[in-house]
Amino acid sequence: MPNLVSVRGPHARGPMDNIRVQWNMGNSCNYECEYCPSILHDGSKPWLPLESYLTTIERLSQHYNNLGKRVDFELIGGEVTVIPGFEDIIRKISEYNTHNVVFTNGSRTVKWWSKAKHYMDGVVLTFHPDSQDKQHIIDVINEIKDHVTIDINIAGIGGHVQDLGDFVEELRVLFLDCEHNRYDNVSICVKTMYKKLLGAHSKQETYWNYTDLELEVLQRPGIKPMPPVEPIEHVEEHEPQEHVEDTSWMTEFLYDDGTAKYVQSHQIINQRLNAFKDMKCHLGFESLNIDATGEMYSSWCGAVNFGNISNPDWSLPASEVSCPFEYCNNISDIAITKTA
Prior knowledge:
By secondary structure, the protein is an alpha/beta fold. It has a single domain, classed as TIM Barrel. The chain is built from 8 helices and 15 strands. The strands form 2 sheets. A 9-stranded mixed beta sheet has the order 7-6-5-4-3-2-11-12-13. The longest helix is centred in the N-terminal third of the chain and has 17 residues, at 50-66.
């Protein structure tokens, strides 16, 4: 059996002129989903003052711009779109050579999205079936799909997975004539819900005991090719072109026999490909993370702490870190380069 040589996320296979900052801005949320631990939505880590967010954006953007790097902010919570003054935050990011992706449940009004979309580059939208209205999500997608890059996850509620798989295809049709988010490029999937054992890296249990039929839906790829076009009569026929899968947005697993495997991010954990113990993880060189208290880490696994954003003397590591954990259970952490 071949041995794993390296793991590289999509960002690491292009020019490394950017650094990804995933920022947990607080844990307040307007939903209380049963599969979400209270620490992720109970407001025990409240939003920081607006000025703290704006100052940090300026400082990080100026620092990395001076190094010739672009900062790619990933804004997560809680539900960050309900932060007072959130529009000012994304507007500030847009002033620099920066990029932002907002992780959201899409619950704000369509009117709100009609304004905010002009300061967003991407949206990772999670639909929570027990809390949200399908038509509202459809309306939000239609409002923003021609302006921002969209990735859609649907929480895989046990007992409803097959119906949710049908909803995936209903949403996908919205992108048939969309140029900004091509039908064959936008990812829409029903997401396996795991028990969030915060701080535990050796266990990986699903929240529900899914049936075999439900597991089939959960394993479906998020991206599908365009439906075939009906041939036009009296037009010369050509040999059908073989469909070549676009792997540029997938994570690459390279093995010592020279083979490579490309996997969509939401399928990596499902396929148990997230075991990297003792591999050298390039923490702090490609990304860093800020938690709800302002502590800055190399990644969400917490292997290296750079200090608090309020301290001007923070510094980045000088060498890679040997992964100490059995499993890497955060999608963003998984995308950081690992080498044997």
